[in-house]
Amino acid sequence: MIQRPRGTADRLPDAAAAWRLVAETFQRECELRGFAPISTPTIERTELFTRTTGDATDLAQKEMYTFEDRGGDSLTLRSEGTAPVVRAYVQNGLHNLLQPVKLYYITSIFRYDRPQAGRYREHHQIGAEALGDPSPAVDAEVIDLLWSTYRAMGIDDLRLELNSLGDPETRPAYRQALVDYFTPLADSMDFESRERLTTNPLRILDSKNPAVADLCEGAPRSLDYLSEPALDHFEELKELLKALDISYTINHRLVRGLDYYNRTVFEFVPPDAGSQSTVGGGGRYDYLAELMGADHVPGVGFGSGIERVLLNLERCGTSAVDPRSTEVYVAPLTDGAVADAMRLTRQLRDAGIAVECGFRGASPRSHLRRASRSQARAAVLIGTRESERGVVAYKPLDGAAQMEVPRVDAVNRILAVLGDES
Predict the structure, then answer these.
(1) How many angstroms separate the CA atoms of 57 and 10, rounded?
(2) Confidence band of 158 (pLDDT split at 50, 70, 90)
(3) Is the pLDDT of residue 203 over 90?
(4) pLDDT tens-digit profile of 277-286?
(5) Mean of the pLDDT values across residues 96-106?
């Protein structure tokens, strides 16, 4: 028996309500703020990711699904959500629109990584990007969008962690400070962190190794190396979050997993946060478009794994109720009644009623059992006797009395009865 690939998951019908809750809540919060939907290809040119995410990141080094197509082009399955949206913004001339351009998406992400709770090699994200405006007020709105989405779903105990990485002009001084701090400690660090000491020392701060994490506690802090404009940006953002009544904690180790971030970075983590428990996060990436060879485009955004969100819905005891998918079950009691049953089913569906139909003649008991399992509100029975008399039998499944309805007026009468029952 062929099995699904490791690190993937089947989304079964009983999970549909929770997925719908996440998607519809996020969409509603986006539309309240003027964010518009965008969709980008599942495959992108590999250099879109290699030129933007950073050579020393785990994503660039070992997590991308990359292949050469028959034309000789190197393509990569979408490994993160932001770079494709920025590419689409530039390529399609969205800079000509009113700025910032505010976009949201619900998409799949592919990363070859060790499968873990709430994270798969194909996982799914809700994400949003605001492009074309450097104001800290845009940062605040993006953070508020994600926070409001979580709260609207009943996840209201997450902690917002915040930091600023400054600007490219001040990054070299901070980088050197990290090198000076970690070099004498290199013998106490794992191989990966020692490599990062020469490639990108900021990545050491993101280490999940507890021993290295302990060493990071005394490391230089990025906030001490901010330029005056970057510091002003960060201070104004904090004031705006306060105005929005969004609490936060400064996390000096927070650098995020990709190298294109500058200034604001943030994450939402649960109370019992572990090293792999971030529910969602993002930050500002004002120089990402330039890494692609385009003009300067300030931007800020986030991504939040849907599978992680679902785990936190469960943790918070939030249950998503699937709306009734079937209102009426039409039951042909004989094979000769199947055609009329399907005709009535079509008429009811055209009137906007969710209907299931039996596909063969069977006893009333058998059909009513199926109707009950489909959670229908009522069954419509059509047998030889009903056909001869030009009626159908309407049977509520809440125990109310069965009634006969003229076949020629069945749709209107059933609509009226369903309305009265509601």
Answers:
(1) 29
(2) very high
(3) no
(4) 889 999 999 9
(5) 97
Q: How far is CA 304 from CA 15, 100, 379, in A?
A: 18, 21, 42
> Going from the N-terminus, what domains does the chain have, and what CATH number goes with each?
13-170+226-315 (3.30.930.10), 328-421 (3.40.50.800)
In the block, tokens 């802090």 appear at: 221
- Which token pair is 97? 């629109």
* pLDDT at site 421: 64
Q: Is 204 helix (H, G, I), strand (E, B) or coil?
A: helix
The span from the CA of 189 to the CA of 208, in Å, is 12
As a whole number of Å, the CA-based R_g of the chain is: 28
The dihedral formed by the CA atoms of 254, 257, 259 and 264, expressed in degrees to the nearest 10: -40
C-alpha 174/C-alpha 230 separation (Å) is 14
- DSSP-based three-state secondary structure for 1: coil
Check residues 240 and 422 and name the one with the higher pLDDT.
240
Q: Annotate 366-386 with DSSP letters as a single string.
A: HHHHHHHHTT-SEEEEE-HHH
Task: Please give the Cα distance from 138 to 298 (Å, whole number).
Answer: 10
Supply 325's token pair. 């998918």
Q: Please give the single-letter amino acid code of residue 399.
A: G
Residue 415 has pLDDT above 60, yes or no: yes
Give me the sign of the Cα torsion angle 174, 175, 179, 180. Answer: negative
Residue 57 — φ and ψ, nearest 5°?
-80, 155
Counting residues of the chain whose pLDDT is more than 70, the rounded percentage is 97
Positive or negative CA dihedral for 38, 42, 45, 51?
positive
One-letter amino acid for residue 344 of the chain: L
* 165: Cβ contacts below 8 Å, ≥ 6 apart: 171, 202, 222, 255, 261, 262, 263, 265, 283
Tell me which of 211 and 94 has the higher pLDDT.
94
Q: Pick the residue with more confidence: 197 or 348?
A: 348
Residue 370, number of CB atoms within 10 A of its CB? 15
Are 175 and 231 contacting, i.e. CB atoms less than 8 angstroms apart?
Answer: no
pTM of the prediction? 0.88
